[in-house]
Amino acid sequence: MSSETSNLLALPSEILVLIRNDLANIEDFKELSSTCRALRALCGCAPPNLVLRLAAASSAVFFRPDPYFLVAATADQIGRWALRSESNTAQFRKALKGGIEGLFDLLHASRFTTFNPVTDLIDRCAGRQWYDIEDFWGGARSDAETISCEPERALFEIAIYGALFQPTLEANLDGRKGLDLDTRLDFIKYCIPDWYCQSYKAFTVEATGPYRNGWDNVNPRMDQYSIRHILKSSKWRKAWDEMREEIGPDFVDERRQRIWACAVQMHGLEGLEILRPGGTDKWRGKLLELREKLEKMDATNMKSLIQRIDVHHEIDWLECPILEDEIYCCVRGMWPGHG
Asked: What pLDDT, in 10s, does the model give residues 191-212?
C-alpha cells in the first residue's frame, strides 16, 4: 500500500464517502475501488443512484451505444413506473417525443422526484439533519444516540427488503407459504451489514459475505441499527401513519396492526412514491386490497401466522414479514443480557 493511500485511509469515513460521491465518472470509481481492500469495500456499498450517475457520465465510452445500453438495462423499471398512474403515463409519452435521450432523462427524473424526498426524510430521522441541531445530547433530541447512517443506502435497503418479501406477505395472507423467517433473517444479516450483527445464544451469524474478513472490517457500518432507528422514528412513523389514515382506520388487534403497518411499506422502490403528495391515490387500490385481506382473516388464521416464540420469549415471530422485528433480532446481541 502506498503512503498516499495510507494517508487517504487516515481520513474519517465520512470524508471518504464524500470523496467517493464526488467522483466524475465510472472510470474514477473503478480506479478508486482497485486501490486497496478498504476503498473497494467503500465502493462496493455505493448507492445505486450514484453508480447510475457515474455510468451515465461514461456512457459514451463504456456503455455503447450511448444511451441505448443504459436505457435497455432499465427499460423494465421505466415501463412499470409508467403504468402506475395516468400522470406517469403522460410523462412517459412526453419523454418518448424526446427520442432515446428523452427516455434517459426520464430515468433520472423519475428516480430523483421519488428518492430525494424519501432520502431527505430518512436524513431527518437518522442522518446529518437529525444530528445537526443545537444541544443534540442535552435534550434537543428525545431519541439521541450514536448512529452511523447513510440515508440513501438505507432507503435502498428498506426498498429491497420490501420488494423481495412482498410476494411472501401476499402468499401468507392468501394462506400459502412464502419465504420463511430464517431466509429473511439471512437477507438482513448478510445484505444489510452491521458491526453489531453478531452471534448470540441461538442466533448465528457466519463469517462469510461482508463478515468474511472479520467484524472490524464492517465497522463503522451500522446499517441494521440505523434502519431500526429510522423505523421507530416519530418522523418516519408519522409519515406512514398519515398515509394509512387515508386508506382506513388502524386495527384494534395488535398482530393484525403490526402486519398492516409493515405491509404498506413493502412495495419496493416504486412504492416509495406513496409518501409523495398524491401518492396514496395511485396506490389506493392495492392498499385497500391488502387491508381487506387482513380484515377478513379470522382469529384461527391469525394464530396460524405465528411461526415460533423467539429465544427470549419476547416476540411471537410472525410468518408474515415484519422488518422492524426482524432487524431487532439481528442486532439484539448488543444489549446486556442478550449477547
From this structure: 888 888 888 777 788 888 888 8
